[in-house]
């Protein structure tokens, strides 16, 4: 009688006894029949549990373990928020002409505006601190009066934030560390001279001290100059571009550069380059905003992406921006060639300035400019 089952020899070792490290022998099962009958059986696989590796970090020294990955600030630094901020920041582009409502600055001659821009760059650097802050207040009130509410609130908020950061950084960092050198001049008592009397007004070089940081008069001067100059440059240029068309600015610059023709300067190429640049600024802002809105509208689940995938998305974002900008530049060049432009900048005529004439707004602007320059000279001399 043939037996269809094989008997295996099972050995059980006590858990307390150590396993011998001596030579090992293979124990073969005993078959009721020949070994070929057992080899003809179909093999089968036993399920094996998948080994998993979990890393935990200790939150304290008491032996407790906690998952450290939950402390990574993924939601606060989400790429979706960054793209929304980019789309919101470019919603009101700098350098865009605002045709309505028509204000006092729209009727001022563009040549006078360029003179104002030059004066607002020089005056804050060469005037008293009171005059610097006065120019900041003057430009703030002029922006509120001239620009629409949503535009001036957006622009003033960002420019004030940048100027405030410069003021705090330079004020505390320019003279915050005390010098390590000592004066080599001997005291007056050793030279037989009387001591200098103390200041009657209570002069103090150190204005404020915040721990290791010191806010001095030198820091105040440097910080106020840099912050006020930054504010006046950005906001005055924004006001000029918002109330003046690119053609008017290009024509005004051409009027100032005409004497340089006798020196061999290509004035026509400079003016045409400026005109194309002013036209192209708004396109750049539009592309940055449109591509950011396109990514946000696709509702990408950023939490499921790895760090490298997120970086790759941002690389694709910037690549798409540059690709669209280059496409716009090629379309502009093709449009100029189709309209007959063959590289001669002198053939590009601008007629806007021929229609302008000096009026009451221009005389008032020149009078205000003279008052500002005179006040800056007097403040630097008498204060």
UniProtKB/TrEMBL annotation:
Where is this protein found?
Answer: Membrane
Question: Which keywords accompany this UniProt record?
Answer: Membrane, Signal, Transmembrane, Transmembrane helix
The record's GO CC annotations read: chloroplast; plasma membrane
The signal peptide stretch is 1-18
Q: Report membrane topology.
A: Multi-pass membrane protein
Q: Does the keyword RNA-binding apply?
A: no
* Superkingdom of origin organism: Eukaryota
* TM spans (from-to): 129-147, 159-181, 220-242, 263-285, 358-378
**Protein's name according to its UniProt entry:** Protein ABCI12, chloroplastic
Provide the species name: Senna tora
């Amino acid at each position: 009688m043939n037996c269809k089952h094989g008997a295996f020899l099972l050995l059980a070792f006590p858990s307390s006894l150590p396993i011998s490290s001596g030579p090992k022998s293979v124990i073969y099962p005993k078959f009721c029949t020949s070994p070929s009958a057992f080899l003809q059986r179909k093999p089968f696989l036993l399920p094996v549990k998948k080994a998993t590796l979990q890393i935990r970090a200790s939150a304290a020294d008491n032996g407790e373990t906690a998952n450290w990955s939950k402390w990574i600030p993924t939601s606060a630094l989400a790429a979706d928020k960054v793209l929304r901020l980019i789309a919101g920041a470019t919603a009101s582009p700098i350098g865009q002409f605002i045709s309505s409502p028509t204000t006092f600055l729209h009727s001022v001659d563009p040549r006078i505006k360029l003179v104002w821009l030059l004066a607002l760059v020089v005056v804050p650097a060469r005037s008293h601190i009171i005059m610097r802050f006065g120019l900041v207040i003057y430009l703030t009130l002029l922006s509120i009066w001239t620009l629409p509410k949503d535009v001036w609130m957006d622009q003033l908020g960002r420019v004030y934030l940048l100027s405030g950061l410069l003021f705090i950084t330079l004020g505390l960092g320019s003279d915050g560390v005390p010098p390590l050198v000592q004066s080599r001049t001997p005291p007056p008592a050793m030279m037989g001279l009387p001591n200098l009397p103390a200041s009657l007004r209570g002069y103090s070089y150190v204005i404020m001290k915040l721990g290791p940081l010191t806010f001095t008069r030198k820091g105040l001067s440097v910080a106020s100059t840099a912050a006020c100059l930054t504010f006046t440059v950005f906001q005055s240029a924004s006001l000029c571009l918002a109330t003046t068309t690119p053609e008017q600015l290009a024509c005004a610059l051409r009027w100032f550069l005409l004497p340089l023709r006798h020196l061999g300067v290509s004035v026509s190429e400079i003016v045409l380059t400026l005109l194309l640049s002013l036209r192209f600024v708004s396109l750049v802002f539009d592309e940055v905003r449109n591509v950011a809105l396109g990514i946000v509208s696709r509702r990408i689940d950023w939490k499921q992406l790895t760090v490298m995938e997120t970086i790759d998305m941002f690389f694709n974002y910037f690549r798409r921006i540059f690709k669209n900008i280059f496409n716009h530049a090629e379309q502009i060049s093709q449009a100029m060639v189709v309209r007959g432009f063959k590289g001669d900048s002198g053939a590009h005529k601008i007629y806007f300035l021929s229609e302008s004439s000096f009026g009451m707004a221009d005389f008032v602007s020149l009078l205000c400019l003279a008052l500002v320059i005179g006040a800056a000279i007097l403040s630097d001399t008498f204060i």
